[in-house]
Write a structure and sequence with these properties.
Strand order of the largest sheet: 1-2-3-8-6-7
CATH class: Alpha Beta
CATH superfamily: RutC-like
Strand content: 25-35%
Number of domains: 1
Number of strands: 8
Number of helices: 2
CATH architecture: 2-Layer Sandwich
Low-confidence stretches: none
Structural class: alpha+beta
Shape: globular
Radius of gyration: 14 Å
Order of helices and strands: EEEEEHEHEE
Length: about 130
């Protein structure tokens, strides 16, 4: 199967040697997204709610660039800087997956790029 690099200006440019996402067949593998505003290239101001919204909007933009939608997401990996933020994170995250949410793993990590509070990567699949 052919490997296709997915890029969009509606999500942050990679800050390292990786792609925003890779599409292979009907699968899309999205790199970890932090709460960078693609217009400014800076981490959004605010707390976990604001950062979660920005990350999810970045993911949505990458999905759309590849011809996918949020309901095509089948797995999400979440890195939280502090698990005490889990409830607030979950409330914002849940707004993006109202019906049949994807499988998910959430872990606490010591640090994230640019001092972000969370990072999310994903796998999507079209039927």
């Amino acid at each position: 199967m052919k490997k296709e690099v997915i890029e969009t200006n509606l999500a942050p440019r990679p800050i390292g040697p990786y792609s925003q996402a890779i599409k292979v067949g009907n699968m899309l593998f999205g790199s970890g997204q932090i709460a960078i505003d693609p217009k400014t290239g800076e981490l959004v101001k605010g707390g976990i709610r604001e950062q979660t919204r920005q990350v999810m909007e970045n993911i949505k933009a990458i999905l759309n660039a590849a011809g996918f939608e949020m309901n095509d997401v089948v797995f999400v990996l979440v890195f939280l800087k502090d698990l005490s933020l889990f409830r607030e994170f979950n409330e914002e995250y849940g707004k993006y997956f109202k019906d049949k949410p994807p499988a998910r793993t959430t872990v606490q990590v010591a640090e994230l790029p640019k001092g972000a509070l969370l990072e999310i990567s994903f796998i999507a699949c079209k039927e």
